[in-house]
Amino acid sequence: MLSKLQLSILKQAPKYVYLAGFFGASYVFCNAYLAPLIGTGAVVTLSLVGQIISSLVIDQFGLLGAIKKPIKFIQVIGIIFLFIGVLGIELY
Fold this sequence. Notes:
Elements: H1 4-12, H2 20-38, H3 40-61, H4 73-91
Helix pairs in contact: 2-3, 3-4
């Protein structure tokens, strides 16, 4: 049974916080599903590329209370090189 303090904390939490479990489970499931198909190196690299792209999008639009910082051209070039690296891992 939850105490009154625990219930009050749950009521104060923003609604998007409850999506964390879903996203975490999806992340683990996708990694477990893709690892035998494309290899662990490609899965780890794709995960990192996805996290970096997500952080750039969060900064660009100021999501989740972040300070807005526009995406720079050099960052886009870096993402392209990372994606080429993933293809290199996958194809060779």
